[in-house]
Amino acid sequence: MALLEVKNLGIAFGGLRALHDVQITLDSGEIVGLIGPNGAGKTTVFNLLTDVYVPTEGSIMLDGASIVGKKTYEITQNGIARTFQNIRLFKYLSVIDNVKIAMNSQMHYNMFQAVFRTPRYWKEEQAMDERAMELLSVFGLEKMADTRAGNLPYGRQRKLEIARALATNPKMLLLDEPAAGMNPTETRELLETIKLIRDKFAVSVLLIEHDMSFVMGICERIIVLDYGVIIAAGTPEEVRNDPKVIAAYLGGEE
Amino acid sequence: MNAKVKKKLVSYAINALLIVVIFIALSALIDTGVINRYYAGIVKLIFINIMLAVSLNLVTGILGQLVLGHAGFMSVGAYAAALFTMHSGLPTSGPFAVLTLLCALVIGGTLAAVLGFLIGVPALRLKGDYLAIITLGFGEIIRVIILNLPFAGGALGLKGIPGLTSFNLVFFVSVLTVYFIYAYLVSRHGRAILAIREDEIAAEAAGINTTRYKMIAFVMAAFFAGVAGGLYAHYIGVINPGKFDFNYSVEMLVMVVLGGMGSITGSVVAAIVLTILPQALLSFADYRMLLYSLLLIVMMLFRPGGILGRSELSIAGLGRWIKRTFLGKKDKGAGKPEEGEV
């Protein structure tokens, strides 16, 4: 059974059909790219998967259970974590706190155990500190654990956002333009990191990206959206040579 | 137990010791008459204001939601607690009077918290200016309702509330409040609340139930405002609805902003300064409020982020600050928010 099964997904904002008849399946451990021209509806797909919007048609199944109509935080707790196109970190908080916030639902001490500093508080806090540091070291951020997140350079902020998403123990990671604004070296580094986390944390990845060399270099399958419908899907090779895709990007002859 | 935990426990112990020292010093000064009865009253007021400022800071500075009806919650606590001690028949003098007051405070706080919950359900769907206006509205509604309640004494209010608020009690209740809020914040729950201030959408995406945590912070703030109200009623002896109007809410907000949004110790410092200031300016008679406002303007111009900004006051931090400013030494930990309280 596939990890994620999206069937006939669609959403209309009033009379505007932003997405229509979208089918996506994702097996565990897969890295799949979602590409398309600006305004094609890529981020809308992410917003539907995380229930920021409620779809007007179709179904989304995660591990065989429907996740339509759940709250965004429940989706995250169920195993879909995401990053944002424009980085959304907790800027005034430290790097490690950014990660620990995402571990909130894995800690269980209650308000009174927190206030009275019971052994459980110390134990869970310490365990989470260790896990957070471990996670940060995967991204080379362990030395900056106490830095304010907003003071990190851009590339590292992107990485921290991915680390924060991973801290929720996801089965599936949605990355919205992870390489945006990165230089070629940083992009290459990111490519390696994403492959590494897929292997290390056993997550599948669905990513939106405009950097074609990045997408072609990392994705096992690519889905192409244009005007809210899927116009092509397949291996990078197939998609690259698909006339419909070329037409969508470069403008075809009508 | 690892070194980090040990270090934290040591800092807690130092803070606790400091609190005990402050307590002994203040009560000695009051007992020996160095602080006369009038000033002892002001000291009590300072601690009540600390509770109000810190609890308001929990929603406004730490959760990041502008609330303008804090006096409303305070008035509910004040009236509920006062009515309880006046009509419950429990002893209001002798050794058990403290217990009566404690019961009254719990009742006042709980009632304020329940009201906070009821108001929070619709209000917390809104943000920023809209939330400010809706809480302002609710604050006024509470005031008008109390004004018209047959058993609450109307515009004249309640008179002859037993003066049970002793220095000892107000000191410990206020220290406990500050500790409770501080300890709550340095935990997974507090981090979740901070995350909501920083970015609500990201907090939700990180698996935080934002609605729940907003409500918890709001209700907790209402509870402590209610407790502070109860202490206030038993301190001043006479309460009327006019006292708890919009101006009082703004006064509390000024304390929070002046101390630094999100800084608990900042609120404590600001509450102390802003309670003493009007008293210190008494000799200027008519120009008193003018000077008060001018001082506020000057402080905001020079420290727009508040006295402490977003950082907290602590002994370790203070040591570093002294080193930096007076000895010209630079050290690595500078500017990093430190843990510590009071």
Strand-residue proportion of chain B: under 5%
Which value, in Å, is the CA radius of gyration of chain A?
A: 19 Å
Choose one word for the global shape of chain A: globular
Gyration radius of chain B (Cα, Å) is: 20 Å
Taken as a percent bin, the fraction of beta residues of chain A is: 15-25%
Mean pLDDT of chain B: 88
Pick out the low-confidence regions of chain B.
329-342
The CATH architecture assignment of the domain at 4-92 and 165-250 in chain A turns out to be 3-Layer(aba) Sandwich
Task: Spell out the helices and strands of chain B N to C.
Answer: HHHHHHHHHHHHH
| N/C terminus separation of chain A | 40 Å
Which bin fits the share of residues in helices of chain A? 25-40%
Fourth-level CATH superfamily of the domain at 4-92 and 165-250 in chain A = P-loop containing nucleotide triphosphate hydrolases
Counting helices, strands and paired strands, the structural category of chain B is: mainly alpha
Tell how many strands the DSSP assignment of chain A holds: 10
The number of domains of chain B is: 2
Distance between the termini of chain B: 26 Å
Number of helices of chain A: 10
Structure description:
The complex is a heterodimer of chains A (254) and B (342). Chain A has helices spanning 42-49, 72-78, 95-102, 111-115, 119-138, 154-167, 184-201, 212-218, 236-240, 243-250; strands at 4-13, 16-26, 31-35, 57-62, 65-66, 80-82, 172-176, 204-208, 221-226, 229-234. A 6-stranded mixed sheet of chain A has the order 6-7-8-3-9-10, sandwiched between helices. Chain A has a 4-stranded antiparallel sheet with strand order 2-1-4-5, covered by helices on one side. Chain A is of the alpha/beta class and 254 residues long. Chain A starts with a strand and ends with a helix. Chain A is built from 10 helices and 10 strands. Chain A has a domain at 4-92 and 165-250: Rossmann fold (3-Layer(aba) Sandwich), CATH 3.40.50. Chain B has 342 residues and is mostly helical. Chain B has 2 domains: 1-35; 46-270, no CATH class. Chain B is built from 13 helices and no strands. Chain B has helices spanning 3-31, 37-62, 70-87, 97-123, 128-148, 167-185, 188-198, 200-205, 210-236, 246-259, 264-280, 288-302, 315-327. In chain B, α3 (70-87) runs parallel beside α5 and α7 (188-198) packs across α9. Chain B is globular and about 55 Å long. The chains are: A alpha/beta (254), B mainly alpha (342). The interface between A and B is large, with 42 and 32 residues.
